Write a sequence for this structure.
């Protein structure tokens, strides 16, 4: 599935975009939206946890987990462990981020699960969890047979990329949905905050694209996606 191009340039730009995306979502939620809080009389501060954790957790850390095989110059076994741990962190932060959205809705008397973004979000986090559990059991511990691992590997990679692309797309939908709500409440359509949110969505999509390109490019080793258990 390699493109015939080295992965290094793609992973380098992915890291830069990851930093930019993390900074931009923090500036939005802290500077423009007032900050983050788990308990607050201003319930919007609770909601602000959601985009921060979903972007930095599920999208950025999840993306770094995917490209760790191509960007980390360590032994295969170490890269596998990094891949596993980063995905676990991404999954946990994603779950907390979704819970923050439910908490905000419940405390603000807003219905849950009424939008495409919310339904896709639930489906994605469930699929992400299934993917992680399967990868842990088959490729880490206790580990499947050689034949099962060999047969599972292309499906594991393909399904993982499918879930990740869905997550990136849903993040873009989420930015659009929230910005639409804000603009309908009086936010200037051509103001600095609106531009920041739109550019954050664009950076998110570009980051996802570079993650996909890095996976499709040539790594430093023929063994980047070997199927042996740790």
């Amino acid at each position: 599935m390699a493109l015939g191009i080295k992965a290094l340039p793609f992973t380098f730009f992915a890291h830069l975009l990851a930093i930019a995306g993390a900074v931009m979502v923090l500036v939005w939620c802290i500077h423009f939206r007032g900050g983050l809080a788990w308990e607050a009389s201003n319930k919007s501060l609770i909601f602000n946890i959601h985009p921060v954790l979903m972007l930095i957790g599920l999208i950025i850390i999840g993306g770094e987990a995917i490209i760790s095989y191509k960007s980390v110059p360590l032994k295969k076994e170490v890269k596998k462990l990094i891949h596993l741990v980063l995905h676990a962190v991404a999954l946990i932060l994603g779950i907390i981020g979704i819970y923050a959205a439910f908490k905000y809705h419940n405390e603000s008397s807003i219905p849950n699960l009424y939008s495409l973004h919310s339904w896709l979000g639930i489906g994605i986090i469930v699929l992400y969890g299934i993917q992680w559990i399967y990868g842990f059991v088959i490729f880490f511990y206790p580990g499947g047979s050689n034949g099962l691992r060999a047969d599972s590997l292309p499906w594991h990679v393909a399904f993982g990329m499918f879930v990740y692309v869905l997550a990136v797309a849903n993040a873009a939908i989420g930015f659009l949905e929230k910005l639409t709500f804000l603009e309908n409440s009086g936010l200037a359509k051509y103001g600095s905050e609106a531009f920041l949110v739109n550019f954050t969505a664009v950076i998110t999509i570009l980051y996802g694209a570079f993650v996909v390109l890095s996976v499709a490019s040539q790594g430093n080793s023929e063994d980047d996606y070997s199927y042996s258990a740790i």
